[in-house]
Write a structure and sequence with these properties.
With about 425 residues, the chain is α/β, with parallel strands linked by helices. The chain has two domains: about 200 residues, UDP-n-acetylglucosamine1-carboxyvinyl-transferase, Chain (Alpha-beta prism); about 210 residues, UDP-n-acetylglucosamine1-carboxyvinyl-transferase, Chain. Helix content is about 30%, strand content about 25%. It is built from 15 helices and 24 strands. The protein has a four-stranded mixed beta sheet, covered by helices on one side. α13 links the parallel β22 and β23. α1 packs parallel to α7 and α11 packs parallel to α13. The chain binds ligand EPZ. Ligand EPZ binds next to α1, α5, α6 and α13.
């Protein structure tokens, strides 16, 4: 029996949510601990399932984590990696989380070898890693695909190179950047990803003694150094979690204070679009207040890499636009199959037409509670949002997807007057 969430709507969110540390910053930062035989201390780490999976992988390699829980939702993790004695990321772990590929760059850079299981596809698409591998080869690594594994080696170390990514890849940029920090010479990454999580990783690596510049722009320059050392670093807040709760305010005609960071600059295109939808944003101390104007206007959205509209908020936004007073359009440009939530939203009465990577959402007057099934991480959060607005009971199955990227959802919503029940 898989875990379920039961929600009886409609409910209105009204309160404050402390946003946790970003999943997509914590994962590469944890992998970066492999780059130094000194310890790395990360603060503001959210106790997410994906974080636990990455910690399991690091322990499999011989790393020793020490976790102190500062509260239910904020952890400090210190990782010692002076006794790494295994260089293989097994299929059992990699199939659970594709971001496992992020150990490739650090292991290659520090130890000159790594074996990573090919991750296989996942629900939102094929999710290839060819650009990661081409980047490592450009730095001088030998890369073989054998028996379902990537066998990578660099017996004479890695050598800086100029790498021009044909498409923007977030973890590809992170992986190659980490490989380059201990390479000999200078590496230039062109058409690099510009996400805040890349900047956070580069800032932490520089505190460890790396020499990186240009992070946050499309051209990142890494001058190789001989070794890295201990540092302490606090993970940036999770902009996707923040955006998800912002939409909760819009879809329930409520109000939420998002505390923990400068979310307006972390989500520039999202805030701009949501203002067009009718959400009202007010800067507050260490955060952003989001209020519904009582009206949901239709908009057209194209998902793009940062600073464009984030694909990781596409499903949640679609839930909101199901209740807009008109027709909206969403073009999903990043992932080839990120509309699994559409069938589930339609079960609740949404009116959505799909043509390849284009969704036409015709707003309806209301949604109706129904039994639905989560299919992937962000789809699961879009179902929670639609259930809050729907009339009647919704039971969401397979909510283990939600736990991969959102922590303490029940508690955070309860703090805003919203009741959801988890049924194991
Ligand atoms: C990161 O995935 C995020 N995950 C994803 O968030 C996010 O959706 C994605 O970036 C886009 O913003 C983490 O950071 C852990 P990409 P990533 O490489 O790096 C193609 C979530 O919900 N591509 O930027 O795997 C790829 O097919 C997750 O938190 C190649 O062709 O995404 C896609 O079309 C879901 N070859 C595009 O690039 C490659 O070698 C962008 O993918 C790599 C990518």
């Amino acid at each position: 029996m898989t875990a379920k969430i039961e929600i009886v709507g409609p409910q209105r969110i009204n309160g404050t949510v402390h946003i946790s540390g970003a999943k997509n910053a914590a994962l590469p930062l944890l992998a970066a601990s492999l780059l130094s035989d000194d310890s790395l201390t990360l603060k503001n780490v959210s106790p997410l399932v994906d974080v636990k999976t990455m910690l399991n992988l690091l322990e499999e390699l011989g790393a020793v984590p020490h976790i102190t829980s500062d509260s239910l939702d904020f952890q400090t993790i210190s990782l010692k990696t002076d006794s790494i004695d295994n260089f293989t990321a097994p299929y059992e772990i990699v199939k659970k989380m594709r971001a496992s590929i992020l150990i490739l760059g650090p292991l290659l850079s520090r130890f000159g070898m790594c074996m990573v299981s090919l991750p296989g596809g996942c629900s939102i698409g094929v999710r290839p890693i060819d650009l990661h591998l081409k980047g490592m080869q450009a730095l001088g690594a030998n890369v073989d695909l054998r028996d379902g594994y990537v066998h990578a080696s660099a017996p004479h170390g890695l050598k800086g190179a100029e790498i021009d990514f044909p498409i923007v890849t977030v973890t590809g940029t992170e992986n190659v950047m980490m490989a380059a920090v201990l390479a000999s010479g200078t590496t230039v990454l062109k058409n690099a990803a510009r996400e805040p999580e890349i900047v956070d990783l580069a800032n932490c690596l520089n505190k460890m003694g790396a020499d990186i510049s240009g992070h946050g722009t499309s051209t990142i320059v890494i001058n190789g150094v001989n070794s890295l050392h201990h540092t302490e670093h606090s993970v940036i807040p999770d902009r996707i979690e923040a955006g998800t709760y912002a939409i909760a305010a819009g879809i329930t005609n409520g109000c939420v204070n998002l505390i923990g960071g400068d979310f307006r600059s972390l989500l520039p295109s999202f805030v701009e679009k949501m203002e067009q939808v009718g959400l009202i944003f007010t800067d507050i101390d260490n955060g952003l207040r989001v209020e519904s104007s009582g009206h949901i206007a239709p908009v057209d959205i194209q998902t793009e890499s940062y600073p464009g509209f984030p694909t990781d908020l596409q499903a949640q936004t679609m839930a909101l636009l199901c209740l807009a007073d008109g027709e909206s359009n969403i073009q999903e440009n990043i992932w080839e199959n990120r509309f699994m939530h559409v069938a589930e939203l339609s079960r609740m009465g949404a009116n959505i037409e799909i043509h390849n990577a284009h969704a036409k959402i015709i707003g309806v007057n209301g949604l109706k509670g129904a039994p639905v099934m989560a299919t992937d991480l962000r789809a699961s959060s879009s179902l929670v949002l639609s259930a809050l607005a729907a009339n009647g009971k919704t039971v969401i199955d397979r909510v283990y997807h939600l736990d991969r990227g959102y922590s303490c959802v029940k508690e955070k919503l309860a703090g805003c007057g919203v009741v959801i029940d988890r049924i194991q």
